[in-house]
């Protein structure tokens, strides 16, 4: 991966509250999940995650959350 000079915050909202859990994220090429405490947070209604990668890189983040309907 090239040098990290960009960060992205993701907020994934559930359609309804449930047991806190974390979806699977598949970031675009060159990006990775920030694997540090407090950078991947789950609550009954949503999940926050942070990605790090090269500034200006584009691409979609695939999100899979089995058994959970995603609202936004």
Description:
This protein is mainly β. It has one domain (6-64). It has no helices and 6 strands. The chain has strands spanning 6-13, 24-26, 32-33, 40-42, 46-53, 62-64. The strands form 2 sheets. Strands 1, 3, 4 and 5 form a 4-stranded antiparallel β-sheet that branches. A two-stranded antiparallel sheet has the order 2-6. The mean pLDDT is 91.
Mind telling me the C-alpha Rg? Answer: 13 Å
Low-confidence stretches: none
Helix content: under 10%
Number of distinct helices: 0
Main sheet summary? 4 strands, antiparallel
Give the beta-strand count.
6
Mean pLDDT score: 91
Query: Based on helices, strands and strand pairing, what is the structural class?
Result: mainly beta
β-strand percent reads 35-45%
Q: What distance separates the N and C termini?
A: 29 Å
| H and E order | EEEEEE
The rough form would be described as elongated
Q: Tally the structural domains.
A: 1
Short descriptors:
two-stranded antiparallel sheet, mainly beta, 72 residues, four-stranded antiparallel sheet
Topology:
Blueprint: E1 6-13, E2 24-26, E3 32-33, E4 40-42, E5 46-53, E6 62-64
Antiparallel strand pairs: 1-5, 2-6, 3-5, 4-5
């Amino acid at each position: 991966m090239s040098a990290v000079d960009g960060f992205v915050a993701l907020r994934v909202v559930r359609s309804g509250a449930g047991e806190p859990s974390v979806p699977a994220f598949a970031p675009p090429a060159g990006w990775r999940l920030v694997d540090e405490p407090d950078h991947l947070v789950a609550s009954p209604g949503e999940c926050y995650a942070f990605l790090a990668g090269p500034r200006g890189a584009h691409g979609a983040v695939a999100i899979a959350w089995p058994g959970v309907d995603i609202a936004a």
